[in-house]
Design a protein that fits this description.
There is one protein chain. This protein is 36% helix and 15% strand. The chain is α/β, with parallel strands linked by helices. Among the domains are: 2-167, no CATH class; 203-345, Rossmann fold (3-Layer(aba) Sandwich), CATH 3.40.50.300; 524-683, Leucine-rich repeat, LRR (right-handed beta-alpha superhelix), CATH 3.80.10.
């Protein structure tokens, strides 16, 4: 694990030498030497880690090297603070020059130069009082001290024979070049346990009117969640329970109020919840909402029967044939949940099922190499039918040559007992096999208290942390997604949810999340603060760089236990932000954590917090000059201070959510943050973004404000949301001319008022990468040649209040269209017609066409259709008989991003 830290720090030192050459001035030589010596040590680290178990000498050597790597990173980050001055002194990245304007080298010249600067402006540095601030006077000496420490541990290697021990290593090393993958496997259907599924479907469809609890139990990694998900997504189940289906993961540390809120949200009940303050209030509300309906509730991962007993009264026994599915590891919990309970013990896979699953992971369904089949079956047998172990083993062997298979087999034999599987050791082996970049990504999973993670957020965090490095042909976001793909490929992460054809949420098995937490704590990679647990009473280790705050109390004591050199601060404490002035509580973080790169204090659930932010974000935010990621979702901020311009490394600003209609004004200084990549919120007024050449995401811009933006330099914009509001002039026409410059645009959403229309779509012909288009307004004309100028379009949503022409002839020719959503009024049309061979790849169709009485689909059209939803406004719509059996798509598949 330490190899990941050392490798990362070496990369950062290299970045400083390239990007901050002028800033480093007289200490450039020292930094280069430090980077070189760390790089030499890096060669021994991985092998040393493999040998440290049971060897205290090597364990201490590895720990010392890790601490030096951390300290090296601190030195440079704090040095940048010491020379930064937002009042006219040395600024971020500014050159250190002498009176004649020429750069000097050497520690002595540097000290003379800095003394000259300080004597001219002694009040220029606002960070002088930071507790552990490294002065510009001794930066060179500090680096020299680090180099001496490196020399000492190098000497200890020779003195105690550590290098000889390390060199006598296991010959298991292989190339760690990440494999780029472009698709996500649907892991929930890797093995079809038809006998098990069918028996449980019988119970779900039983005519017994009483509410029935179906309890699925078995050991961790056996596939309880996968089985429950398969039942939940079954087409016949969706039809039987209509839209009254909900899924919630419970976990060991659930909070009843939070659990009830998540259940209510999962059922998609829209009634305002502001007046529901207590658990009893929420339980009664849920009971009333379900009283007249047949419902299906899945409670995944229950650890004790008290969880169900505390929820039981919220689910009415209404004699409608309602069902509750519960998954648990505990047989005692499964058997004692309810008087009306069907208990199912999930079995292990048979040898043939095990081999089938393994082949899908290790060979991607191709024929197994005869030379490898014997080896593979031998290893699969050791997994004893446990799906998680088999999937991880398959991922570990993916893309290896026969010699690599033999190495894994030898390691596996050392890691497992002859008569059973030690899953933890197998998972540990899979983790150790990762490249250092993938290790860092996997360790980052330990931040999140929930097993389900938002993919976009996760990718942006990885980029902000520096865990995804740009290449010649891949952006940082692309590389981060490649890392995520590879972890999915190895079964260390699972797919959870797709929206509009894209992976939107991923899931981490709790055993793997436990592994990530264990490894992260061993490495002092993360400190989790939860005041409800006594283990948090001790102070955090000095080398810990990332803080995750889980505590559900209003106390802010975590501030005093968090390391001041933290790089990441992720707050999951909703109660803390709910009480009192949020700005007042966050302000200490702006000064205490001076080298912070990531600050995520959201989302703050307005349903439970009732937060009202005190207007504009505090000017104190400008002190965090290293900040790359700022998320204050649902915070109701109305303005950003001018000091935001100090944050020249900022990549993401996320101010989305909040009270409906909450809008944010941007200062002109936003336009100076050249590294800004994602600007998320509801922005009004002037948009000073014209010079942001690195901007990838803008969500969302006011219609008339966007019209004034010169888009010539926004060459990297990939996702754009534009919205009209009550200030927008009536009868306005949206021109796509402002979009024509955006050559890399992939996602475009434009929401107009009912009396606003769209000009010709022809201007989009230059946006050849556009794959997702969503338009809402009064009228839009669809050219017949849409397949020519939008050849990559995969998802299209049209909400139009006046359509005079059948859109199907134009749309059916778009070759890659897979999702189509039409909400339209057709006063002069009665029929939509799809010709034979039209819509060759269409998978999902949602139709809400007021006025249409027939959907005519010729034989051969829509051959790939798997989801069809006709909204209630046209219940008597005439459709072909073959389409009537197609179920509606899952709710989340076409839900807005």
């Amino acid at each position: 694990m330490v190899d990941a830290v050392v490798s990362f720090v070496v990369e950062r030192l290299g970045d400083y030498l390239i990007q901050e050459a002028k800033f480093l001035g007289g200490v450039r030589d020292e930094v280069e030497s430090l980077a070189k010596e760390l790089r030499l040590m890096q060669c021994f680290v991985k092998d040393a880690e493999a040998k440290q178990a049971g060897n205290d000498l090597i364990r201490h050597w590895v720990s010392d090297l890790r601490d030096i790597a951390y300290d090296a990173e601190d030195v440079l980050d704090k040095y940048m603070l010491s020379v930064h001055d937002d009042k006219g002194g040395a600024s971020l990245g500014s050159p250190m020059v002498d009176g004649e304007g020429t750069s000097r080298k050497g520690l002595g010249s540097l000290v003379i130069n800095i003394r000259r600067r300080l004597s001219s402006n002694r009040e220029s540095n606002p960070y002088r009082s930071a507790k552990k601030e490294i002065s510009v006077y001794n930066i060179g000496k500090t680096i020299q001290a680090l180099r001496k420490r490196l020399a000492d541990i190098d000497s200890s290697c020779e003195r105690y024979g550590i290098k000889n021990i390390i060199s006598d290593k296991m010959d298991v090393e292989q190339s760690k070049k990440p494999i780029r993958v472009t698709s996500f496997g649907d892991e929930d259907h890797l093995v079809d346990l038809k006998d098990v599924t069918d028996s449980l479907l019988v119970k779900l469809f039983d005519k017994q009117p009483k509410r029935l609890v179906i309890s699925i139990y078995g050991m961790g990694g056996l596939g309880k969640t996968t089985l429950a998900k398969k039942l939940y997504s079954d087409n016949d189940v969706n039809r039987r329970f209509h839209r009254f289906c909900a899924w919630v993961s419970v976990s060991q540390d659930y909070k009843l109020k939070d659990l009830l809120l998540r259940i209510i949200k999962s059922f998609n009940f829209k009634t305002a919840l502001e007046g529901l303050e207590t658990e009893d209030d929420l339980g009664r509300y849920l009971h009333r909402s379900l009283q007249e309906h047949k419902y299906l509730m899945v409670l995944d991962d229950i650890w004790d029967k008290e969880a169900w007993l505390s929820l039981k009264s919220a689910f009415p026994e209404n004699m409608n044939g309602s069902r509750v599915i519960i998954t648990t590891r505990n047989k005692g919990v499964a058997e004692r949940l309810d008087g009306q309970t069907y208990v199912h013990e999930l079995r292990f896979l048979t040898p043939e099922e095990s081999w089938q699953l393994f082949c899908k992971k290790a060979f991607h369904d191709s024929i197994a190499n005869k030379g490898l089949e014997k080896l593979g079956r031998e290893m699969v047998e050791k997994c004893r039918g446990l799906p998680l172990a088999i999937a991880v083993l398959g991922g570990l062997l993916l893309h290896r040559d026969p010699e690599g298979w033999c190495s894994v087999r030898d390691d596996l034999w050392r890691c497992v007992r002859s008569d059973s599987t030690d899953v933890a050791r197998l998972l540990d082996l899979s983790f150790n096999d990762l490249s250092y970049e993938l290790k860092l990504c996997f360790l980052y999973l330990s931040h999140f208290p929930d097993c389900i993670i938002d993919v976009k957020k996760f990718i942006r965090l990885l980029v902000a942390e520096g865990f995804a490095r740009q290449t010649d042909d891949r952006t940082m976001e692309d590389v981060a997604r490649d890392h995520l793909d590879e972890l999915i490929n190895r079964s260390l992460i699972q797919t959870e949810e797709r929206r509009w054809g894209r992976l939107s949420k991923c899931r981490v098995h709790d055993l793997l999340r436990d592994l990530a937490i264990e490894k992260a704590k061993d490495l002092n990679f993360i400190h989790i603060w939860d005041e409800s647990k006594s283990s948090n009473s001790s102070s955090v280790m000095p080398s810990c760089r990332r803080q995750a705050i889980y505590s559900d109390t209003s106390s802010d004591s975590w501030l005093h236990h968090s390391n001041e050199v933290s790089r990441s601060l992720l707050l999951f404490n909703r109660k803390w932000v709910a009480e009192g002035d949020v700005q007042q509580k966050l302000r200490p973080a702006f000064t205490r954590f001076s080298v912070l790169r990531v600050l995520d204090a959201g989302p703050m659930d307005a349903l439970t917090t009732g937060i009202v932010w005190d207007g504009e974000l505090s000017e104190q935010i400008g002190k965090l000059i290293h900040l790359r990621y700022l998320s204050l979702r649902d915070s109701n901020i109305t303005g950003i201070p001018r000091s935001i311009g100090n944050l020249q490394r900022l990549q993401t600003i996320d101010l989305s959510g909040g009270t409906i209609g909450m809008e944010v004004k941007l200062p002109i200084e936003i336009g100076t943050i050249k590294e800004l990549r994602h600007l998320i919120g509801k922005f009004i007024g002037n948009l000073p973004i014209e010079n942001l050449e690195n901007l990838r995401t803008l969500k969302s811009a006011e219609f008339e404000s966007w019209e004034k933006v010169n888009t010539a330099k926004l060459v990297n914009l990939q996702e754009l949301h534009i919205e009209a509001d009550e200030r927008t002039q009536e009868n306005k026409v949206f021109s796509f001319e402002s979009i024509a410059n955006l050559k890399r645009l992939q996602f475009l959403s434009v929401k107009l008022l009912d009396d606003n229309s769209f000009a010709s779509l022809q201007s989009l012909s230059q946006c050849e990468r556009l794959v997702d288009l969503r338009l809402s307004g009064r009228m839009v004309k669809l050219p017949e040649d849409m397949d020519v100028f939008l050849p990559r379009l995969g998802c299209l949503s049209l909400t139009v209040s006046n359509l005079e022409k059948d859109p199907m002839p134009a749309l059916e020719r778009v070759p890659l269209l897979t999702i189509l959503e039409l909400h339209i009024k057709c006063p002069r049309l009665k029929k939509f017609c799809c010709s034979a061979e039209g819509f060759p790849l269409l998978g999902i169709l949602q139709l809400d066409a007021n006025g249409i009485v027939e959907l005519q689909v010729e034989e051969g059209a829509m051959p790939m259709l798997r989801g069809l939803k006709i909204l209630p406004e046209i219940p008597k719509l005439k459709i072909p008989e073959r389409l009537r059996s197609i179920p509606p798509p899952a709710e989340y598949e076409c839900e807005d991003l």
